[in-house]
Specification:
There is one protein chain. With 280 residues, the protein is an alpha/beta fold. The chain folds into 2 domains: 2-106 and 216-275, Periplasmic binding protein-like II (D-Maltodextrin-Binding Protein, domain 2, 3-Layer(aba) Sandwich), CATH 3.40.190; 109-209, 3-Layer(aba) Sandwich (D-Maltodextrin-Binding Protein, domain 2), CATH 3.40.190.10. 40% of the residues lie in helices and 17% in strands. The chain is built from 12 helices and 11 strands. It has helices spanning 2-8, 35-41, 43-53, 65-73, 84-94, 139-151, 156-160, 168-176, 187-195, 226-237, 244-252, 267-275; strands spanning 24-29, 56-60, 79-82, 97-102, 110-114, 131-133, 163-164, 182-186, 205-209, 217-220, 258-260. The strands form 2 sheets. A 6-stranded mixed β-sheet has the order 2-1-3-10-4-11, sandwiched between helices. A 5-stranded mixed β-sheet has the order 7-6-8-5-9. The chain is globular, with a radius of gyration of 19 Å. It starts with a helix and ends in a 5-residue tail after the last helix.
């Protein structure tokens, strides 16, 4: 166990091997929460994928979203978990293939939160208050919240002065601890952190929820053997919460079940990224 953990707790993708081998599957995830904690939570998934794909899984979770995209561009990964925005980036730059997504990712939302005693009740009330996004490349922690804020004509200075915490958990904690007046984050992370008491639900209040949009997706690098990518996709599609071990995996992924993912579904997200000048 110790030697496997040592291999897994590599938070930099620079050391990834240049090419995959027949017995190694290089997997990574964007850091939606603290990377070191996420690695530990993903151990059951690592074992499951190793068994289903018939390969040793090497998992890395870097400290920012862009690192995963760059690793895909440089053929340093075989399979990756991306947000909707990082997917359209990786699709354009590296030709990645979408595999599966959680059923909830077809209609995902961002939660806008503040403190219970805050005067903020709507987007219009954000004027004059400090605000936090997550990672700059996050779909639910930046791109779509900003998109809807602009649609609602939120005071531009709120967006211009916003801080970037780097992660959904950090955004929620920044609001709960009063470091910022409000922030936006992934609904699944919000649900998980507040229902598991990692963040006291009494310290935060949701004041707005975005309309639905597409988000997270598992992808395979361009050129990955179809048998391997198919085995990975089928492994996710087969996850069943009636099996205690598989239920643990699904819970760690904030999922109930997985469904096939299609590239065309992300066209509206591409448009939003292009309109924001964030896709090149």
């Amino acid at each position: 166990m110790a030697h496997r953990l040592a291999a897994l707790l590599v938070l930099s993708l620079a050391a990834c091997k240049p090419q995959a081998t027949a017995t190694t599957l290089r997997v990574s995830m964007i850091p939606t929460t603290d990377p070191s904690k996420a690695i530990r939570e993903m151990e059951p998934l690592i074992d499951y994928l190793s068994n289903k794909a018939g390969a040793k899984v090497e998992m890395t979770i870097p400290t920012n979203y862009a690192a995963v995209v760059e690793a895909l561009v440089n053929d340093q990964l075989d399979v990756a978990f991306l947000g909707g925005f990082t997917y359209v980036q990786a699709s354009k730059r590296a030709g990645v293939k979408p595999l599966v997504q959680r059923d909830r990712d077809r209609e995902f939302h961002s939660k806008f939160v503040t403190q219970p005693g805050s005067p903020i009740q709507s987007l219009a009330d954000l004027k004059g208050h400090s605000f936090a996004f997550g990672d700059v490349n996050s779909t639910s922690g930046h791109l779509m919240p900003e998109y809807f804020m602009r649609q609602a004509n939120v005071d531009p200075s709120v967006i211009a002065k916003a801080i970037y915490t780097g992660g959904h958990d950090a955004t929620l904690l920044a609001v709960a601890n009063g470091k910022v007046d409000a922030g936006a984050l992934d609904e699944a992370v919000f649900q998980r952190l507040t229902t598991t008491a990692k963040v006291d639900p009494a310290t935060v209040r949701v004041f707005w929820t975005t309309p639905a949009f597409l988000d997270y997706v598992w992808v395979a690098r361009k050129g990955l053997d179809a048998k391997i990518s198919g085995a990975v996709a089928n492994a996710f599609l087969a996850l069943d919460d009636s099996d205690p071990k598989q239920k643990r995996i699904l819970e760690a992924l904030s999922a109930k079940k997985y469904v096939p993912a299609e590239d065309a579904s992300y066209d509206k997200l591409r448009q939003a990224a292009e309109q924001a000048g964030l896709l090149w």
